[in-house]
């Protein structure tokens, strides 16, 4: 097994005719993901390298049975595109778009939660990779192989760094889930931890957090109560000064809240090993896996 | 984007939040003219984004034109905790019968706006929260429902505001919520919110943070600037579309992705060095963007060595290498560079660098090794 994306995934990309949308959709297909459609309003009837393009998500669902959406449209159109995918009955919506207004994210989050039909992963995330099965997003899949380490992360490149060290030592991944660096992620650490805990294939979980908010602290509480599999944590941003946004809209220390030290402490107090560098995280995982 | 007090108050006024009459001023002459218009006594207030400016002499009361001139002269150019005062706000002085606190905060955990009201205004609210948490009434507003009159009444009664101002305080909270949603703020804070002797309510201060990602819908707000908060490197980077944050150290950093960039700073600090900046070159960086980023990093003359830490995903390492080679051709840097290229086209990138054999460029194969090397090079006399 794996989580969120796999052999049942039937992907439809919103913004498939854009430069990035085309490039990454085709890469996902090359990896083996079943890409069934694309959506670009006004370009229905065209195709992108054989992938049919529709004007609406509703057509993509009706005609091609799409069950997963990947959002690649610019920030000002992204909230609408997510809501359209949800309205059309798409179960999983992965939003890669970065720079969506915070109030749009708030509205989308609360609508999706109220309706309870779809899961949103992201926005501002690298997507989800289940090695050997499916890739939805922009994760460089060739660096990863199938295995038993589940990774959940707020950062893309940091995940690649840690995953690569694991891969060099011969360990692979069940799934890699980027939840994104924005203040209101559709899916948070707790949601993914619950899925990894229930996933037969996942034996160890790596959780990559960063400064800002309290998602890591809440994840720490959840781990203590509900997760029996070993978890190794990493927090980026120990040297980040307060009041400065460090690249991700959600990565900001406000006053004494949201610091890396507080997050690492919360995790460690609940028995989660926290590496101080990505290399330490990978080494800790390797030690446990070799048990 | 954090607004200055007067910028926040001007937004408030547009949405019907009562504020004292005031005018901004950039020179002593403008300040005196503004004082004449608002009348005396008036407050001459330094416009800097820092708490406690009153105690540091940044807010003074003028009773006539002579005092207005004297205060404006003293405050303009003043240094308040490292920030130079470039602007003043001259406003009619207010008589105060009671000081409250009110705010709307973007609560990430609850995924809803959080409204707070307290009768303990005029002091540090974090201190109130620590010492007397019950003194702050709190309420989450369902963003799909919006602010209702009962929200205002509930907060006012729970906070224990004077009975005769429950209604105007509730109305003011409704206006603050309107500012929060229609201007797309992530923070709207009033401290103090005052009750005057004639039982009016007014926002005596304004702290507003706007969402930078939403500025395309608010062209007027996008024009607002705070000259005292602008750093030359940060401005240069913003103009080039790079994500750059200036720090205090001597090691210039370029990495890709926010998480890996932050992590690179941490690993350098762990190795005993002090980063001079955070710079996320972003996903899919082309050679020109890399050249441009090198210029920004080197424009900070405290930089004694530079670390490139790239794990290519969408970013291709050969593009990064080309950008660095071009930067050397254009700038001819005088400080050493340590480069770690891994991921997509990593081998091609390393080969390009090896062929170019740039002076004083050291190639390392791991992130940790690169961090140690750059710390060692930066420490050399």
Structure description:
The complex is a heterodimer of chains A (291) and B (381). Chain A has 2 domains: 11-121, Rossmann fold (3-Layer(aba) Sandwich), CATH 3.40.50; 127-290, 3-Layer(aba) Sandwich (Rossmann fold), CATH 3.40.50.261. Chain A is built from 9 helices and 14 strands. Chain A has helices spanning 19-31, 57-64, 75-87, 102-115, 156-168, 189-198, 215-226, 260-269, 278-290; strands spanning 11-14, 35-39, 47-48, 51-54, 68-71, 92-95, 119-121, 127-130, 134-137, 146-153, 173-178, 204-210, 231-236, 273-275. Chain A has a 7-stranded mixed beta sheet with strand order 3-4-2-1-5-6-7, sandwiched between helices. Chain A has a 7-stranded mixed beta sheet with strand order 9-8-11-10-12-13-14, sandwiched between helices. Chain A is globular, with a radius of gyration of 18 Å. The mean pLDDT of chain A is 94. Chain B has 381 residues and is α+β, with helices and mostly antiparallel strands. Chain B has 13 helices and 18 strands. In chain B, the strands form 5 sheets. In chain B, strands 7, 8, 9, 10, 11 and 12 form a 6-stranded antiparallel beta sheet that branches. In chain B, strands 1-6-2-3 form a 4-stranded antiparallel beta sheet, with helices on one face. In chain B, strands 14-16-17-18 form a 4-stranded parallel beta sheet, sandwiched between helices. In chain B, a hairpin with a 2-residue loop joins strand 4 and strand 5. The longest helix of chain B is centred in the middle third of the chain and has 17 residues, at 166-182. Chain B starts with a helix and ends with a helix. The mean pLDDT of chain B is 92. At the A-B interface, helix 4 and helix 5 of A face helix 9 of B.
């Amino acid at each position: 097994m794996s989580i969120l994306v796999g052999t049942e995934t039937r992907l439809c990309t919103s913004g498939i005719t854009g430069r990035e949308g085309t490039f990454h959709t085709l890469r996902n297909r090359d990896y083996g993901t079943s890409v069934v459609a694309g959506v670009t309003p006004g370009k229905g009837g065209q195709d992108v390298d054989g992938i049919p393009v529709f004007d609406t998500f509703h057509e993509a669902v009706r005609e091609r049975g799409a069950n997963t959406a990947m959002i690649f449209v610019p920030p000002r159109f992204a909230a609408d595109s997510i809501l359209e995918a949800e309205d059309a009955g798409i179960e999983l919506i992965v939003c890669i778009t970065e720079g969506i207004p915070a109030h749009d994210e708030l509205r989308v989050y609360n609508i999706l939660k109220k309706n309870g039909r779809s899961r949103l992963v992201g926005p501002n995330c690298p997507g989800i990779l289940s090695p050997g099965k499916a890739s939805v997003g922009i994760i460089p899949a060739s660096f990863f192989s199938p295995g038993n380490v589940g990774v959940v992360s707020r950062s893309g490149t940091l995940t690649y760094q840690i995953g690569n060290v694991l891969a060099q030592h011969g360990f692979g991944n069940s799934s890699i889930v980027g939840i994104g660096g924005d203040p209101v992620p559709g899916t948070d650490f707790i949601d993914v931890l619950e899925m990894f805990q229930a996933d037969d294939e996942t034996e160890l979980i790596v959780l990559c957090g960063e400064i800002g908010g309290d998602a890591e602290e809440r994840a720490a509480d959840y781990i203590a109560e509900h997760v029996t599999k070993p978890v190794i944590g990493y927090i980026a941003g120990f040297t980040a000064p307060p009041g400065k946004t460090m690249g991700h809209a959600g990565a900001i220390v406000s006053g004494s809240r949201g610091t890396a030290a507080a997050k690492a402490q919360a995790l460690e107090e609940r028995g989660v090993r926290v590496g101080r560098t990505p290399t330490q995280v990978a080494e800790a995982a390797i030690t446990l896996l070799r048990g | 984007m954090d607004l200055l007090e007067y910028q926040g108050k001007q937004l408030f006024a547009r949405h019907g939040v009562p504020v004292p009459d005031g005018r901004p001023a950039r020179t002593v002459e403008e300040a005196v003219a503004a004082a004449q218009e608002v009348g005396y006594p008036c407050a001459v207030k330094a416009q800097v984004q820092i708490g406690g400016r009153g105690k540091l002499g940044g807010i003074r009361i003028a009773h006539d034109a002579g005092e207005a001139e004297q205060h404006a002269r003293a405050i303009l150019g003043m240094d308040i905790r490292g920030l130079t005062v470039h602007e003043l706000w001259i406003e009619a002085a207010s008589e105060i019968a009671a000081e409250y606190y009110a705010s709307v905060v973007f609560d990430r955990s609850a995924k809803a706006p959080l409204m707070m009201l307290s009768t303990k205004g005029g002091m540090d609210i974090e201190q109130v929260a620590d010492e007397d948490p019950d003194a702050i009434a709190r309420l989450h507003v369902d963003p799909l429902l919006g602010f209702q009159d009962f929200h205002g009444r509930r907060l006012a009664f729970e906070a224990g505001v004077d009975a005769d101002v429950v209604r105007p305080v509730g109305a003011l909270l409704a206006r603050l919520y309107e500012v929060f949603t229609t201007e797309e703020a992530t923070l709207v804070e009033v401290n103090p919110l005052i009750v005057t002797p004639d039982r009016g309510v007014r926002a005596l201060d304004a702290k507003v943070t706007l969402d930078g990602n939403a500025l395309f819908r608010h062209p007027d707000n996008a024009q607002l600037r705070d000259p005292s908060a602008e750093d030359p490197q940060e401005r240069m980077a913003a103009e080039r579309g790079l994500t750059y944050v200036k720090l205090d150290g001597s090691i210039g950093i370029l990495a890709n992705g926010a998480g890996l960039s932050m992590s690179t700073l941490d690993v350098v600090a762990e190795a005993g060095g002090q980063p001079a900046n955070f710079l996320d070159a972003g996903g899919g960086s082309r050679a020109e963007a890399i050249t441009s980023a090198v210029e920004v990093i080197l424009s900070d003359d405290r930089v004694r060595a530079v670390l490139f830490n790239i794990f290519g995903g969408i970013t291709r390492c050969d593009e990064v290498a080309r950008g660095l080679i071009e930067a050397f051709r254009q700038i001819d840097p005088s400080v050493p560079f340590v480069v770690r290229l891994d991921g997509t086209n990593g081998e091609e990138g390393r080969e390009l660098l090896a062929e170019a054999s740039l002076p004083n460029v050291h190639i390392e194969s791991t992130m940790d090794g690169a961090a140690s090397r750059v710390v060692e090079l930066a420490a050399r006399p």
